Queue: 3 jobs
Job 1
Amino acid sequence: MSNLTEGRLSATPIRINTSASLQQVLASINQSRPSLTGFVKGWGSIDDPTAPLHGKSKWGGSPIPGNAGLKPAQRSAPKFGAARLYWWVPSKRRAEDLGIQIRDPAAHELCASDVVITDSSVPGRLDGFITVRDEESLAIIRDALASAVSAVDGNSVLELAVGQTRPRDNDFFLWLIWREHHDKALTGRLQLNEIRVVESQDAAYRATSLTEGVDTSRFELLTLISMVRAEFGPIKIKVRDGAHPALYDFELGYDGKFAITLGETHYPTPLGREDKGLFAFLDVAFFVIPELLNAYLGDRDWSASNRRQFIDDCREVLAGPHLTIGLPCINPVGTGRFYADQLGFVASAPRPDGSVVCSREGIEIIFSPSVSAAGGETLVLTIPDAGDVLLDLRAKGIATTAVGGSARSVDFTVADPDGRTVELRGYAMA
């Protein structure tokens, strides 16, 4: 459960395509009242007393609903309609613990969530937010709101995760990572204070969570950026507004859903939970996130050159100093083929002297023909996709030996055709 004045402050953007006006929708909402008798969900006001939602009172609790209504323009938000939906959720475990029937009110928890709706600059459309993100609660509120709108306009359509807080694409999150390290002043008012956590997914749909901050010296992050096809998001950030001043701590997903951490969100003047929750929601939903998205769309240098340069810079750091190694080899062509087929190198055609050059990410190995190879030596290489190489070797039945590694890295050895031990270190990609 989440609402503007109690609980964790989460939100999902919505769009209502309808001929109904905001006032008509609110009037329709007020026709449906919650009732503990029969556990009938219904609407009230965001200013309702919250005591029935707390502690023991929430079990079999009955709200004291006011009227949904229009709120004046405030903060960065235009005038908006606000309503609170109440519903009850049965608990089989509580019924068993109390020795009562599941239909007993004492086995039902009173839940509530808020809806904020605004007029749109687009005719035939209303925009807004539902203050939950989980799918089960969203379905309950969506159905109740859609029913209220349909009572006025039977052709209305309600869409979830569509609106002004949804990034145009996932490249927005990569842009934020770049701005943290190159220019934290995102707009004339907003500054990126910190990226606390960023999630990512590579081209094979493998997820990674970077939870110790976003540092472009970290091997995992460098690898993900260098891959190009990796997608970032959701992201947890702190943004400072120099005009108030205020500090906002929130998570933003690629679907426009967001959650504000009120304990880490600060205003210069102490505020009660109710005022702080409402102010933070209005600021983040109607100013902070839209401003960030507009700054991204307006950064033409990013799309023209900075994006490519950022990726190239990460690849250069990842590769490290260019390394050239000369090794004796009985059969350069065969050994070169092994490094190409099994370890991801690119092998050259044999040179006039019979040698073969294998290369990848700043590493160049020259295999020169020799009557005997130096068996027993160990060649240590760091490559970004070592995890993928390990999985591929195992799938082919090629023997490998674990040396170390962690949840995010691998370190293993494999023997090449000359009996040489090759130790590979890199990102686990899991």
Job 2
Amino acid sequence: MGASFLSLLLTTAYAFTAQAQELNPRIQFLLSTKITHHGPNCWNSALFASGVLAHFRFTSAKEFKHLIDSPLCLKVPAGQQQPGDIQVYRRTMPDISDEDREVHANVWLNDQLTFNKKTDFSTAAYEVTTHAIVNESYGQTADILRFDSVEKSVAVQCQGDTCRNSIEYRRCGNLENMKRQDPHYSAQVEYLVSSMELAIQQQVRSPAKASPAWNAYADKVLTSLNTSIQQACGHERSFYCEHSRNVLESLTWQVHRPQPNWLK
């Protein structure tokens, strides 16, 4: 009985994977991509596969939340999902920051299957799996949860229903169009972001470690990007300016992967 069920599941997964590949070339591309360096994570894979982001790299919780809760993405009621919608897992416990509420994201394919990347580790492959398997990993928060940041590590306890994570669905539009509508849009910022993202996309698939020359190039581009964002935005907090700052933060993390101060 167990073997028959497993065989049926694998057959269904294989058939839908083929269908999903035809409907979404980005999913097909990621399924055939081997990541050799840490960085690309669940939030990035969901945003890339759904067509929001143009490249795969590390995406911070802050960047993900800003995009997913903006007018770019429509909140979809449960039961009305369509293939390509983003499924968002969030913590419901009180007294934590909005950023710390972000748990996981994957792409809804049908009632049984989803496109998923578990973590930002290179060992976490892009995969088509079941909602049940993803929910087993991300549907519940541990009783004692530790939030680790660069500055500190804080332990928080959840109780009762607050230990269950919520599941929301988003259907997102064209990010490029939304950025271009912002009066602070900068072609120079976009050029530098694209240059850095393309370099990262190549580097995370390379078997070799990042060379000193690559790191020097990355630091030069990131410094120029920071300057260009300041010139285009100043202290403005428009959608484009906040998104650009969040992207800079994500790209910097991808390049440097900072060691937390509380571990030093």
Job 3
Amino acid sequence: MSDNVWQTKILLLLANGWKMREIAAHIGLTTQSLFDLRRGRTIEPKGMAAVLLHNMMVGPPRRTVQLPGQSGSKPK
């Protein structure tokens, strides 16, 4: 995984079945802005986008987010 926490969050969401356009829409960014975060061209999201992206990992997500090393069922 990446050293950048935001890149890691995006990669984990993608690995758990989210699509880039879904993540971008959920956090209020353009898909291009999210791609820039994923590639490291932008270091971190600003304001509410950061809060919403973080909450996708810790709150009750639409899909189950499994971190590496966790066991359980796969997301739908």
